[in-house]
Amino acid sequence: MLAPVALAAMAAAASFPPGPTIVHELTPTSRYTLHMCLPPCACPTYSLNGPIAGAMRLRLVEQTPISSRYQVAAVHWRATVQTGPIDMTGDGEYLIRYVGPAVFDQMTLDLTIQDLPWTVTGGPSSGIGEPPLALTALAMESPVAYCRQHVFSIGTRGHYLADLNADGTIDFGDFLEFLNLYNAGDRRADFNLDGAIDFNDLLEMLNEMNAGP
Question: What pTM was estimated for this model as a whole?
């Protein structure tokens, strides 16, 4: 027989509507390291490292008394190392667990890096801000494969995708700002990231307003 707490958590998860999309931009302190020629390769081991920049989108899709689960989408990062830029794209999941007064978080991303698939995981971070969230020093790494390993230390600052006037809320002022961007063909109105600014983006903006805080 399930405990009352478990039943309450399941009911909350089943009825929870998705939250607004949060755009997370990597902070300037974010770093990336690529370890090369790891075993079983016989060449001398060396590492490439440098800053990493870019953004990703998080959306709260499930919340219970003991956890919050976010869908991670539209990961577009670029690391700049000694040999040049390395682009990364993908998606994944971010999970926060509440254990008494303690908070634990974990991120899992499925990335494409240099045309190869990688899964990177990490957490907990050293700090989680209030919504729209900010992560501090989240360490992530991939398993060793192809004689190499990817290691990340990232910080993020978040803002709501639909908060176009950056006042911390999603309201009619943001809708007017969206219409201005839409009519001007500004790429910030491409909410669904399909490369075109069209009616589908308008629908996406309306969805974000309905989900907004």
Answer: 0.83
Helices (H) and strands (E) counted in the chain, each on its own, are 3, 10
Do the domain assignments include residue 176?
yes
- Fill in the DSSP letter of residue 1: -
Q: Specify if 167 maps to a domain.
A: no
Task: Give the contacts of 131 (CB within 8 A, at least 6 positions apart).
Answer: 22, 158, 213
Q: Which residues contact 3 (CB under 8 A, 6 or more apart)?
A: none
Residue 80, pLDDT above cutoff 50: yes
Q: Which domain holds residue 25?
A: 4-160
pLDDT tens digits for 106-117? Answer: 999 999 999 999
Return the CATH number at 27.
2.40.128
Same domain, 132 and 186: no
In a domain, 165, yes or no: no
Render 155-178 in DSSP notation, one character per residue: EEEEEETT-TT-SSS-SHHHHHHH
CB 195 within 8 A of CB 185: no
